[in-house]
Specification:
Elements lengths: L2 E5 L3 H8 L6 E5 L3 H5 L7 E3 L3 H7 L2 E4 L4 H9 L4 H4 L5 E4 L5 H12 L4 E8 L11 E5 L2 H11 L6 E5 L4 H29 L4 H8 L7 H11 L9 H18 L4 H16 L9 H9 L5 H22 L6 H27 L3 H8 L7 H12 L8 H18 L4 H15 L9 H10 L7
Parallel strand pairs: 1-2, 1-4, 2-3, 4-5, 5-6, 7-8
Antiparallel strand pairs: 6-7
Helix pairs in contact: 8-10, 8-11, 8-12, 8-13, 8-15, 9-10, 11-12, 12-19, 15-17, 15-18, 15-19, 15-20, 16-17, 18-19
């Protein structure tokens, strides 16, 4: 039976470690005594007294810690892994870390003949026991082949993102930035729709039928309708992930207009909510900024006023123009399409292939209907026809005008409106079909959107 060591038994790490129970001789360790105790009664699990002791007993070791700096401290610290590591050992890093810092650690360990791969995880903790995790892996061929049978004990969904250590983490940064932007952008538009008088239940059903559909409309909005939570992810960790996305964008030289706004909103949440706030608590921040609430408690208290707002909004659109629901859907689709381009540019300039980006994102939490259409086409080098760009800008103008009248910030959709106005104003008026692809390519000075 294979012997595996696992370090980092937090909400996600503990579930990942449990995937080895019964399939491997498992050794575990965590800095938290409480986390260690949770494994002490598990049959066949050895709870090490230190990271060094775990390394003395295992040649295949997986770590899942909050930050790359924590990984460095855990390896090279006073009682760290390096004390017990033997030559030829394999280290697998599942931390949502910084690619450059991870590569530096790998380079230092390589001098001691220690193999290293990163295998970032996309999954909610409750999905891991079901084998529902997606792993994004980076590393040299030999190390990857050695790690693959170990990782398959966690999940069959494993994507090789590149040959450099850190490539898996870079892919997760792309995914998480897309998820965060689609999430907060969708919430802003949903709150505007609610302030205009559309019940959340009706809006959630409508948005899940068409081009606006994404992870947030699919899971979060229906959960809010039922008064349930859709994620237990810590707000501080999502802020860390988006900070990493901005840092990566700066490092490779790509503009990150919308991601910058998303980071700002998350920072507002981190500064104003309790220290242990969850990502779900950002609903309260978006509600507060718009001066309304998503749930039924507000509908019952202010139903007449909300319906009056709806009438005003519909009248402003005019006879024969798109309905309010159509405008809200168009706004969400536009912001999802923009963030797909924005994050794809960052990934490309970092060195990820478009095919890898397409394969991973569209099976992970960053997906949207827009990404599922756009990314495969870009990966195949198929020209993208922006046949509705003028109409999309028109819809964004109308929904942003509505946000002015109703007093909602709508920061993300407004940013997309400005960017797309710029794209339209600088386009060849005789050929509008490839406008956005050309515009984003030129804006980022990225390599071609192809394999």
């Amino acid at each position: 039976m294979i012997k595996v060591g696992y370090i980092g038994l937090g909400a996600l790490g503990s579930q990942l470690a449990r995937r080895f129970i019964g399939s491997a001789e498992l050794w575990v360790w965590d800095i938290s005594a409480e986390a260690r105790v949770a494994f002490s009664d598990e049959a066949g699990v050895h709870v090490a007294k230190s990271a060094a002791e775990l390394a003395e007993n295992c040649q295949t070791i997986i770590v899942c810690l909050p930050r790359s700096s924590d990984v460095r401290d855990m390896i090279f610290g006073e009682t760290g892994l390096s004390i017990g590591l033997s030559r030829g050992s394999l280290l697998i890093d599942q931390t949502s870390g910084v690619p450059e810092e991870t590569r530096q650690i790998a380079n230092e360990l390589q001098k001691c003949d220690i193999k290293f791969v990163d295998a970032a995880v996309s999954a909610s903790p409750h999905m891991v026991p079901l084998g529902g995790a997606t792993l994004m892996v980076g590393g040299a061929d030999e190390a990857f082949e050695r790690a693959k049978p170990v990782l398959k004990l966690i999940t069959e969904t494993i994507y090789r993102c590149g040959t450099l250590v850190g490539d898996g983490q870079a892919m997760k940064i792309v995914n998480n930035a897309m998820n965060a932007a689609c999430r907060l952008g969708t919430l802003e538009v949903a709150v505007l729709g609610r302030k205009a008088g559309i019940p959340l239940r009706e809006l959630a059903v409508f948005l899940n039928k068409g081009v606006a559909r994404n992870q947030t409309t699919d899971k979060m909005l229906p959960a809010l309708v039922e008064g349930k939570t859709s994620t237990n992810f810590a707000l501080a960790l999502m802020l860390k992930d988006v900070n990493q996305a901005l840092s990566l964008g700066m490092a490779v030289g790509t503009p990150m207009y919308v991601t910058t706004i998303v980071r700002g909103l998350l920072q507002i949440g981190a500064n104003t909510l309790p220290s242990k706030a969850r990502l779900e608590d950002m609903v309260r921040v978006i509600e507060m900024l718009a001066g309304t609430q998503l749930g039924s408690r507000l509908q019952e208290a202010t139903g007449d006023q909300s319906r009056a707002c709806t009438g005003e909004a519909t009248a402003s659109v005019g006879t024969g123009k798109p309905s309010l629901e159509d405008l809200l859907e168009s706004a969400i689709a536009a912001l999802c399409l923009h963030i797909t381009y924005e994050c794809a540019m960052m990934g490309l300039k970092y060195g990820l292939s478009m095919r890898a980006i397409s394969n991973v994102i569209n099976t992970s939490s960053g997906w949207s209907e827009c990404s599922r259409t756009l990314l495969p086409a870009l990966a195949e080098g198929v020209p993208i026809k922006d046949t509705r760009l003028k109409e999309s800008v028109r819809d964004l103008n109308q929904i942003c005008s509505l946000s002015i009248r109703l007093g909602a910030p709508l920061l993300i959709a407004n940013a997309v409106r400005n960017i797309w106005e710029h794209a339209l104003n600088t386009a060849d008026p005789d050929d509008l079909t490839p406008v956005l692809t050309v515009f984003y390519h030129n804006m980022s000075a990225a390599v071609q959107f192809a394999v």
